[in-house]
TrEMBL record:
Binds 2 magnesium ions per subunit. Gene3D superfamilies: 3.40.190.80, Fructose-1,6-Bisphosphatase, subunit A, domain 1. Belongs to the FBPase class 1 family. This is Fructose-1,6-bisphosphatase class 1. Pfam families: FBPase, FBPase_C. Pathway: Carbohydrate biosynthesis; Calvin cycle. PANTHER family: FRUCTOSE-1,6-BISPHOSPHATASE-RELATED, SEDOHEPTULOSE-1,7-BISPHOSPHATASE, CHLOROPLASTIC. CDD domains: FBPase. It comes from Spirosoma sordidisoli. Substrate binds at D131, G132, S133, S134, N224, Y251, Y269, L270, Y271, K281.
Length: 354
């Protein structure tokens, strides 16, 4: 009697399910489509996956290992650093240092460029090691955001700011890791957006969300309404429209978590400028650019008030920008209100000049 005969029908069906596509297998298949590729970017993505597995482990154990809570220091933005911020930063920097493909790193946690031991590396990475970490002590989802560029400075020399300030359209890979009920790696290399769910029993990321498409219409808006009175008139008008239409307000306070939900279900994420912070809070290089590219690759949109975020020119490593990203219809509606207000303001100025 064969092994198959010893199983009942349902068990046989279960064993007949496909194994699935691992991240490593997916990367190899993608690389084979580009004969000129030598595998450096593929290995870089594997380094990101490895670091995220380690960070995932430390997040799961943080409450028992003493990694919860603040570290007693601030980052370049003046924000209180969490112990896990520093732990995640160290894990990713070490992964890139060991990999050899990355020459330099810009991290939210350090003001200056971090030089790796490999000036021969062809790439640089902009990184938010742990987005939303202030939520961690209440066991809320957090994430990692990354953006990869092919350097423009001579290989073999130390990377410069010019390598990082190329603009969002020059990204060669971008994505995020969401540490939640399950851990997911979502990224693009310019050929659509694919999501991989971590299977801890196998120690592998498995393809679970191939070619993600953001619904063109949405019923969710995500922003901190505590700042409503400080927002621009057009943003306030849009939020009132959302309420009037019965849209659901959903705001976690972690960019990765809010963006991920709206990417899958349809919606808009808003982090506008305020009267005291006209450029908003989201960092352009390692938060806005990668998320904007993901949005566009998934058939969504991402704007910074008056133009696509990917067309905003960076002027500093830690520059900020307002962000409106998600379903095309919702972003387009908001953009129309902003445009109308700008035109109205120009008309008033013209009248005064007359």
């Amino acid at each position: 009697m064969t092994v198959q005969h010893t199983l009942n029908g349902s068990d046989t069906a279960a064993f007949g399910l496909p194994i699935g596509i691992t991240l490593d297998r997916f990367i190899k298949r993608q690389q084979s489509q580009f004969p000129s590729a030598v595998g450096d970017l593929s290995q870089l993505l594997r380094d990101i996956a490895l670091a995220s597995k380690i960070v995932n482990r430390e997040i799961n154990r943080a409450g028992l290992s003493g990694l919860a809570g603040t570290a007693g220091s601030t980052n370049v933005q003046g924000e209180m650093q969490q112990k896990l911020d520093l732990a995640a930063h160290i894990r990713f920097v070490r992964a890139f240092n060991n990999g050899g493909e990355v020459a330099g790193i810009v991290s939210e946690e350090e003001e200056e460029i971090i030089y790796t031991e490999y000036p021969t590396g062809k790439y640089v990475v902009a990184l938010d090691p742990l987005d939303g970490s202030s939520n961690f002590d209440t066991n809320v989802s957090v994430g990692t955001i990354f953006s990869v560029y092919r350097r423009v400075s001579p290989v073999g020399s130390q990377p410069t700011e010019a390598d990082f300030l190329q603009g969002g359209r020059r990204q060669v890979a971008a994505g995020y890791v969401l540490y939640g009920p399950s851990t997911m790696l979502v990224f693009t290399t310019g050929n659509g957006v694919n999501g991989f769910t971590y299977d801890p029993s196998l120690g592998e990321f498995m393809l679970s969300h191939p070619l993600i498409q953001c619904p063109a219409e949405g019923r969710i808006y995500s922003c901190n309404e505590g700042y409503f009175s400080t927002y621009d008139e057009s943003v306030r008008a849009y939020l009132n429209q959302c309420r009037d239409r019965g849209c659901s307000a959903r705001y976690i306070g972690a960019f990765v978590a809010d963006f991920h939900r709206n990417l899958l279900k349809g919606g808009i994420y808003l982090y506008p400028g305020t009267s005291t912070q006209p450029d908003g809070k989201i960092r352009l290089l390692y938060e806005a650019y990668p998320m904007a590219w993901l949005a566009e690759q998934a058939n969504g949109q991402a704007i910074s008030t008056s133009q696509p975020i990917l067309d905003v020119r960076p002027d500093a490593l830690h520059a900020r920008t307002p962000v409106f990203a998600g379903s095309t219809q919702m972003v387009t509606e908001l953009a129309g209100l902003v445009s109308n207000q700008n035109l109205s303001g120009q008309h008033r100025i013209a009248q005064v000049e007359l």
